[in-house]
Amino acid sequence: MTMTACLWFDTQGEDAATFYCSVFPASRIVGVTNWGPENPEREGTALTVDFELDGQKFVALNGGPQFPFTEAVSFQIPCRDQEEVDYYWTGLQADGGRESDCGWLKDRFGMSWQVVPTRLPELLADPDKERANRAMQAMMRMQKLVIADLEKAADG
After folding, report:
1. Residue 71 carries which DSSP code?
2. Which residues of 42-60 are buried (b: 16+ CB within 10 A; e: fewer)?
């Protein structure tokens, strides 16, 4: 079974899909379905946009303003190194996004992302509970996660 995440936008679904495809390598717009005459004020504009981010399927639905994004749903990006953390942190905040705490940010469309180095879960799962706690406390004080600072904190 393959699941597809459907993201509800007011009217910016096509712009969001294009933006996300510009940030994530190996991504593409698969297809666009437009509103028809049953909705004359939106006729000819995108209703749905099918797109893939590095092989993961998504649909952007321009359904209206009733359901804005909240932090209750986010996408987590596992990053192998600091260069990758920096790339996604900067890229997803472009043109109006904003950083939050603990590796979270919101892009300009209001979608929440967690930009997480793969080193973080390793530090948090350290069998030395004090070491893991120091890494957790350091993460809680950060916005963008910095691997060297997490490791330094864990080491005490």
Report:
1. T
2. eeeebbbbbbbbeeeebbb
Quickly list H helices, the chain.
Answer: 13-23, 82-93, 119-124, 129-140, 147-155
- What is the spatial distance between Cα 101 and Cα 93, in angstroms, rounded to a whole number? 14
Task: Say how many residues make up the chain.
Answer: 156
State the pLDDT at residue 47. Answer: 97
What the block records as the tokens of 120 is 């973080």
- Per-residue pLDDT of 25-70, as tens digits, reads 999 999 999 999 998 999 999 999 999 999 999 999 999 999 999 9
- DSSP assigned state of 134: H
Give the span between the Cα atoms of 153 and 128, in whole angstroms. 13
> What is the strand order of the sheet 46-53 is part of?
5-9, 56-62, 46-53, 28-34
* Backbone dihedral angles phi then psi of residue 125, each to the nearest 5 degrees: -100, 10
Query: pLDDT tens digits, residue range 103-141?
Result: 999 999 999 999 999 999 999 999 999 999 999 999 999
